[in-house]
Write a structure and sequence with these properties.
Layout: H1 7-44, H2 48-51, E1 60-63, E2 69-73, H3 79-97, E3 102-106, E4 109-111, H4 118-124, E5 140-142, E6 154-158, H5 166-171, E7 177-184, E8 188-189, E9 195-205, E10 208-219, E11 222-233
Length: 234
C-alpha cells in the first residue's frame, strides 16, 4: 500500500520517466534523420537548370485534331531551329562545367506529414506494426543541417534567409545558383524501430516540382533508403 507521503514522489518519478521517453523518442528520430539526410538530399534534389531544360524542337510538328503533338518531321527542320539547338547545347555545356554551389532552401523545423503514414508503413514493410508514441504534442523536430555534410555540389540554406512572399521567392534574382526548395516530414517508425517512412518534396518553381514517399530501414547498424516513390509531379 502506497502511503500518502509517497504519492507525490511517485507522481514525480512517473513524470520524469515520461519526459525521458519523450526526449528519447525525439532524439532517436533526430539521429536517424541526421544519418540518412545526405542520401535524402542526393536522392530528391537536382540542378533545375539541367533537369528541366529541354532541347528546342527541330522539324515540323504534326498534331492530332485536339492539338496534341503526335510526331515531328525532322526532314523539315529549318536553319533557325538548328541554330537554336546549337545555342542550347552550348548553354548546357557551360552549366555542366559550372562548379558553383547549387543552393537549396530548407526548413529545418521538421513537422508531421499531413497524411497518416502508419498504413503505408505496414503495407510496404510486411509484418511491421506502427509505433504509437505515448507522449503526444511534439509536432516539430529541428534538424541541425548545417553540421551535416552534403554530397556533391548542393548547399542548403535556411528558408528563413529567403523572401517570405512566394512570388518574390521564385522571381527574385539571386547572386548565387538557386535551384529550389526541399522539405521532409517527420518519420513514422515501426514498434521495433527497424523500419520507417516519411514524405518529402522538391520544388523548383511555383508550379514545378516533385513529391516523394520515402521508405527507410535499418541495415545492420546503419539506416538506409529502401525505396522512393513519386507521389506527385508539377
Amino acid at each position: 500500500m502506497i502511503k500518502p507521503l509517497q504519492l507525490p514522489l511517485l507522481i514525480m518519478i512517473l513524470l520524469f520517466v515520461s519526459c525521458q521517453k519523450k526526449i528519447s523518442d525525439l532524439e532517436f528520430e533526430k539521429n536517424v534523420m541526421t544519418e540518412i539526410f545526405p542520401s535524402l538530399i542526393d536522392s530528391t534534389c537536382y540542378d533545375s537548370r539541367i533537369t528541366f531544360s529541354k532541347p528546342p524542337i527541330y522539324g515540323q510538328e504534326n498534331c492530332d485534331l485536339e492539338g496534341h503533338i503526335i510526331s515531328i518531321d525532322s526532314t523539315k527542320g529549318t536553319e533557325e531551329q538548328k541554330q537554336k539547338i546549337e545555342e542550347w547545347k552550348r548553354n548546357q555545356g557551360e552549366i555542366e562545367k559550372d562548379t558553383s554551389k547549387i543552393i537549396i532552401a530548407f526548413n529545418p523545423e521538421i513537422e508531421k506529414s499531413n497524411e497518416d503514414l502508419k498504413g503505408y508503413l505496414e503495407q510496404y514493410f510486411k509484418g511491421a506494426k506502427s509505433f504509437y508514441p505515448i507522449v503526444e504534442g511534439d509536432s516539430t523536430n529541428i534538424i541541425d543541417f548545417k553540421n551535416i555534410p552534403i554530397k556533391h555540389r548542393f548547399e542548403l540554406r535556411n528558408i528563413s534567409e529567403f523572401p517570405k512572399d512566394k512570388y518574390e521567392f521564385w522571381r527574385k534574382k539571386y547572386d548565387f545558383v538557386f535551384s529550389g526548395a526541399v522539405f521532409f516530414t517527420r518519420i513514422q517508425f515501426d514498434k521495433d524501430k527497424k523500419f520507417g517512412v516519411l514524405d518529402g518534396g522538391f520544388s523548383c518553381g511555383r508550379h514545378c516540382g516533385n513529391g516523394f514517399r520515402i521508405y527507410i530501414k535499418k541495415r545492420g547498424e546503419k539506416w538506409v533508403i529502401d525505396k522512393i516513390e513519386e507521389t506527385s509531379v508539377a
